[in-house]
Amino acid sequence: MPHDFRLYNTLTRKVETFAPLHEGKVGLYLCGNTVYSDAHIGHGRAMMVFDMVVRHLRARGWDVRFVRNFTDVDDKIIAAAAETGEDPLALSARFIDRYREDAAALGLVEPTVEPKVSTHIDAIIDMVSKLVERGHAYENEGTVWFSVESKADYGKLSGQKVDELRSADVGSKRNAADFALWKGAKPGEPSWDSPWGPGRPGWHIECSAMSSKHLGEVFDIHGGGLDLVFPHHENEIAQSECAHGTEPMARYWMHNGLLTMPSGQKMGKSKGNAFGIRDLLAQYPAEALRLYYLQSHYRSPLPWDPATGAQMDESLAMLARLYEAREVAEAMGGEESAEEVAAALGDDARRVLELGQSFEERFLAAMDDDFNTAQALGVTFELARAINRFANHKKAKKRGAPVVAPALKGFQQLTSSMGLLGMSTQAFLDEVKAKRLQALGVERSEIEQLLVDRTQARADKDWARADAIRDELEAKSIVVMDRADGVDWKIRLVSAEA
RNA sequence: GGCGCCAUACCCAAGUGGUUAAGGGACGGGUUUGCAAAACCUGUAUGCGGCGGUUCGAAUCCGCCUGGCGCCUCCA
C-alpha cells in the first residue's frame, strides 16, 4: 500500500516525506524514563504520543521494531537511594516494575525490546573504548570525557555552537562543553570494572549503545521529549556518529511538546508540580487521557490545569460520545443493500453512508500528515454526529446497518491508529462509573436502590416522588437518563457544576 | 548572552497563499421528553496578538513590535 507519509524532522526543521532505511521496516528508539520516581502525566504524554506513532505506522503496514529503554544507573537514582539507604539498583528495579504497571494501565503497546543500562555495561564500555581509540574522547583520573571539539558538526540537532553555550566550570575537562562518557566510581556508588578503573556510564552514552545494539548504527526514527534535544540527543548523535564512523545516527528525530501549567511553566519532576499517572488513572479511564493528549498536535505545548478536572471531564465526555455512537450503529439491523437503504431512508442515511465511505481516506490523510491527530479526531466526530442524526429516524434501528457499516469500519481505524475505542462500550461505561464513584465516595448499590424506587414511582405515575428521588441522586452527582428500554445513569461531570 | 518555539471565538483546538476559518466544550433558541438527561437542529470570530510590506489575493510569506514558553544545569 504505497502512500505519502510526512513527518517533521527536528534535524532539518522541516516536514519530510518518510522513507525507511529498509523497505517495509521501521526502527524506532524512544528515550524512556530514568527510574527514580513514578511517572507523571508529562511522561504520560510522551508515552502515549509514541504509542500512537507505533500503532499508526503498524496500521500503515510497516513492521515496526520499537525500542524503549530504561535508564537505571544515574546520578538521580543514586541520590534518591542515598536518602532511603536503599541499594540504587534495587530502587530502580522497583520503579521499573511500577513504570511497567503504569504503561499497562495506559494501554500502551509493549516495546519490542526494553533494554536497560545495567545489562548493557559491556556494550557501553566497548563504545567508550572506540571513542578513545578514535581520538574523540580522553581519560582524566578515571573519568572519560567526550571532546566536543573533535566533531566538526557538533550541535547540528539543536543549532548550538560550542562557544556560545552558557557553561559551568571547565574543571578537569578540555572544553566546558565536554561531557562524561564514563564516570570514575565514588565510594558507595554502583560501579563496574573498566579499562579506566571502576566506574559507571555517563548520562548520554547508554542510549547510543543500546540503540546501536538493538536497531543498528543507523536507524530510522529517534524520539523523545522536546526537553531532551539538548544536551541529551545532541550528545547521543556525537557519540554514535564518532564511534561508528557512520551518519546520521537516526534519520528522523521526533520530539513531543511538553505539558504546561497555568503559569505557562512546563511540568517537571524538578519543578515540583508533577501530577502522577496513577492518581489520574484512579479517577479516569486511560482512553480519556489518551484522547486528551491526542486532541492537540503532538508537537504543541499542551496546557494542564491541576486545579480543575474540566479538561479530563471534557475528554471523558467526548470519548463517551464516540463509544455511544458506535454502540448505536452496532445495534442497527437490516439486510438490504446500502443503496436501497439510502434511497429509502433519505438524506441522513445517505450522508452517514457517504461520510463512512470517505472516512478512511480523510482520517488517514490527517494521520499521514505528521500525525495530525486533532484533525483526524475532527473527522471522527463528524462521523459520530452523522450516525446519531441518522439514528433519530424511526426505521434506522431496523434497517440502518448497511449504511452505517462503513462508519463502523472507520471506528476500527481509530482503534488501530490511535488506540481509542479499544474496549466494549459496556466495559468502558462500567469502568467510568466505577472510577468516578470511587472518586466521589458514593456506593453503587445505594444508587441502584434509589433507581428501583424511582422506577416504581414512575410506574405509579407519582411524578413528585420520582422527581424527588432524582433530586436526591442529583445531589450525589448522579444524572438519571430515562430511555425507551429502561433507565440508565451517569456521573455528572465536574465542569457542569461551575 | 546564544539556540529554538508559540500567539486563531468565552475556553480547548485544526487550518500555513485562493470556495461558507475543521472539531470539541460553554452559553442562547428549538425538536424530543410526564418533567429531565442524552441525542439531533440552530445561533455565537467579515475575524486569525499589533503595525507595516510582498501579492490579483495572506490567519497562512517577509520585517518590526508586544506578550509568553522551551533549551543552554537533572528533566518526557
Written account of the structure:
There is one protein chain. With 498 residues, the protein is of the alpha/beta class. It has three domains: 8-281, 3-Layer(aba) Sandwich (Rossmann fold), CATH 3.40.50; 310-425; 442-496. It has 17 helices and 14 strands. The chain has a four-stranded parallel β-sheet with strand order 4-3-9-10, sandwiched between helices. The chain has a four-stranded antiparallel β-sheet with strand order 5-6-7-8, covered by helices on one side. Helix 1 crosses helix 14 (401-418), helix 8 (286-294) packs across helix 9 (310-330) and helix 11 (347-367) runs parallel beside helix 14. The structure holds one RNA strand of 76 nucleotides.
Summarize this entry quickly.
The chain has 17 helices and 14 strands. It has helices at 41-59, 75-84, 88-105, 121-133, 205-215, 229-244, 277-281, 286-294, 310-330, 338-345, 347-367, 373-391, 396-399, 401-418, 425-440, 444-459, 463-475; strands at 6-9, 14-17, 25-30, 63-68, 137-140, 143-146, 179-184, 199-201, 219-225, 250-256, 259-260, 302-303, 478-483, 486-491. The protein has three domains: 8-281, 3-Layer(aba) Sandwich (Rossmann fold); 310-425; 442-496.
What's the helix and strand layout?
Layout: E1 6-9, E2 14-17, E3 25-30, H1 41-59, E4 63-68, H2 75-84, H3 88-105, H4 121-133, E5 137-140, E6 143-146, E7 179-184, E8 199-201, H5 205-215, E9 219-225, H6 229-244, E10 250-256, E11 259-260, H7 277-281, H8 286-294, E12 302-303, H9 310-330, H10 338-345, H11 347-367, H12 373-391, H13 396-399, H14 401-418, H15 425-440, H16 444-459, H17 463-475, E13 478-483, E14 486-491
Parallel strand pairs: 3-4, 3-9, 9-10, 11-12
Antiparallel strand pairs: 1-2, 5-6, 6-7, 7-8, 13-14
Helix pairs in contact: 1-14, 2-3, 4-5, 4-6, 5-6, 8-9, 9-12, 10-11, 11-12, 11-14, 12-14, 16-17
The structure holds one RNA strand of 76 nucleotides.
